[in-house]
Predict the structure.
Amino acid sequence: MDVLSDAISAMRLGRPHSSRTVLDAPWGVRFEPQPGAGFHVLLKGACWLIPAAGEPVRLGVGDVAFLPRELGHGIADVPDRPLADARSLTRPQPADGQVTDDRTDGRTDGRTDGRTDGRTEMLCGAYRLDQTRVHPLLAELPDVVHIPARIGRHPSLRGAIELLGRELDGGTRHGGDAALPALLDILLLYMVRAWYEDRPADEATGWAAALRDPAVAAALRGVHDEPGRPWTVRSLAERAGLSRAAFARRFTATVGSPPLAYATWWRMTVAARLLRDTDLPLRAVAERVGYASEFAFAKAFKREFAQAPGRFREAARGDDRPWPEE
């Protein structure tokens, strides 16, 4: 996979959750901190997103707000509205990966009064992510990613939102259990991609610059495509088409770590994902990430994660809880 897809796949846990919500003013909702990410897409009306830190952000029709670290936030019709717990405003949660239609007038009793003035309609969703090993590409995102609706911008993102809305409008449909989580996963990728695409090329730094730099991007693709290959600075520089010194400087300046340090970090990240998500024996996992022996792999893994691979696998399997927990 490409680097962005890899970074998100390495952090994703469980199945996403989404709901369609209709609220009539006055209303205010508080979302508690969670080990994951969340989003809101405004379909009708306007509202304010109140982050855990920083100024409120006004959202209009078509705007997307993505919170890559769910530190807790509020959303309301006006920025100074008292906030009620989100769980008091919604009906019982659906199965993981499904979408429900929640309608309330903001009085926490679930009733609607038929009004149309001051009505806000939005899609809200949550992803469970492994925040213990955040890929630096995602760590660079701000706490609130605001993607304003602009004609002609991010057609893939808008298409994913439209498909998700259509799937919801159709009620119970054949294939919905597979389509809804797939659409939510696509939406997650497109939201992150949109933020990076919106960075001005002449102001791009860090991973925004790394993904735009053909030489650095080529080296990153090599590391991600073949994590088990015995990479050296020379072999990565040859892939990038640069001298060793020039490549090392450029890679470190944009990615934030030297080439071989990142290669090792990614190897261990892949190993952790294989231990968590597959039943591959330890020897096979070691070979996939470039270690000739289980002993050498176990030693390197314990140095990175402070626990043996077997214990890590047991703990990861025991943490396979549904998301979000309500």
